[in-house]
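Assemble and predict.
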Amino acid sequence: MRPRLGVGKPATRMSAGDGIEVEGLVREFKNGPRAVDGIDLTVEAGEIYGFLGPNGAGKSTTVLMLTTLLPPTAGTARVAGFDIVSQGPRVRSSIGAALQEAALDPLLTGAEHMRLQTALHGIPKAERTARGAELLERVGLAEAGDRKVGGYSGGMKRRLDLALALAHGPSILFLDEPTTGLDIQSRTALWDEVSRLAAEEGVTVFLTTQYLEEADALAGRVGIIDHGQIVAEGTPAELKAEIGRPTVEAVPREPGERERLAAVLERFGERTGGSPGGAAALLEGGESQLAEVVRALDGEGIAIETLQLHAPSLDDVFLAKTGHSLEGSGGAGAEPVGSA
Amino acid sequence: MSGALRTQVGQLAHRSVLRTLRQPAQIVPALVFPLFLLAVNSGGLKDATSLPGFPTDSYLTFALAVPFMQGALFSVMNAGTDLARDIETGFLNRLALTPLRGAALLSGLLAGAVVLGLVQAVTYLTVGLIAGAELVTGVGGALVIVALAVSITVGFGSIGLFAALRTGSGEAVQSLFPVFFVFLFISAMALPLELLQTQWFHDVAAANPVTYLLEAFRSLLFEGWDAGALALGFGIAAVILLVGMLAAGSALKTRLVRT
């Protein structure tokens, strides 16, 4: 494990105190609905917890409360072992946060941002420049460090935001929709860095997202929030298993064979919507039935153009738990298993 | 002041100065607009000096006090707009997540206003003297003029900070500019208080603190050292700063609801 870049009161070890415990947390705004309506959750030290939900579900309000920037209306929460209401300064010294918008000053350079952040966190003057340079290097902004942030791309701003959140070596990192609006390359780079922080440095990560594939790829556990309430929680695999069965979808080489193909697939489970010209069915026996499907189609002499297995996605979970799809989600995507 | 607080104030002051220097659009209008009005007024109203009781033969010298006030009004807008932008972009939340103290934030943010006030005051005075204005108090008077101008700029800047923290909107802060400008027009800006014949205007100008700030500048330009006028001028600037900072401090507590 690489030593953490902490100074002042650095968390140099992973401990139970580096987690998050939330009980009955509520935030009510004046004349408005409950943005957060009594949520309970626990995030273990060193875990990446994905907080998944559509716009307006209460994700950012939860983050603002857990980072002490917004007092809760009711309920309690301990972050890094400290109460978010009565021990705000202790909480803040233990956490780093990259909030929804990359809050940067377009007139300052990346290096100037790092100097300001490290100084405000009380890092000794002699260490500030080196720490800033190291973090800029780590997020791939070493060469752009002397350029004004106004000229940075969205991905560069997000990476600088992450570097700033890490300036004082926090043990817990809050990332509020860190990849919204980023291209896939920038998104992947950020995912890699977040995974590395958790795996190699034991940083606990609380990540909000509206991208299903992000939660799927990064989070050890996922909490799904809708209308201020957590409607499901578990590992992505557990949640998908709760929903259940994968779908097999095939397109015949000869369009006239579509109905025969559908009849074969129906032997393995309930028929479901497929692509135009094809047919699909839910596999009652799970993924292991795929080989039987291939043999059955071969036995019937049906030539296949494409055959795909769709694993249950978090979108399916979201749909099942909330009754609606997640707006703007990219979906988990299909897993093509080849063509015949 | 503790070491941590000094560092915080210093860092935010450094940022504030950098921001000001990197925004020519903030500096140039604050320099050009008051000098343009000075040229127009000193040319158009120069015959006012023949009015009985007018305190100087040079209307340019009399009018030179006005740019210092106009420049200070720009600081309301600049300091406030910068802070409002920090609120709008979430930068204030970033600062709130550090151990930053409210006093450091407000003091640091005013540093940009100090620099702008200094540049403005030196420019107005230099241009005025080159154009032929008098300065009977000499180099010492010039230094006091600059100090008074910076004090007023900082005082008005604190009102800009209050407006930004109260509204969180750059547009709302900018809309204050014309309101403050009205205060300048209903003062002894164009004529000495004693020569304002319309009673209601005289009464309003007499109650307007801007009149006494102008008189403090004028005392140094063409009357000579006048401790009373200077004490009143610096006192009003101090009161504006005190009220502005108290109001801004209270608004900051409301704005930053961190636990």
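The first strand of chain A starts at residue 20 and ends at 28.
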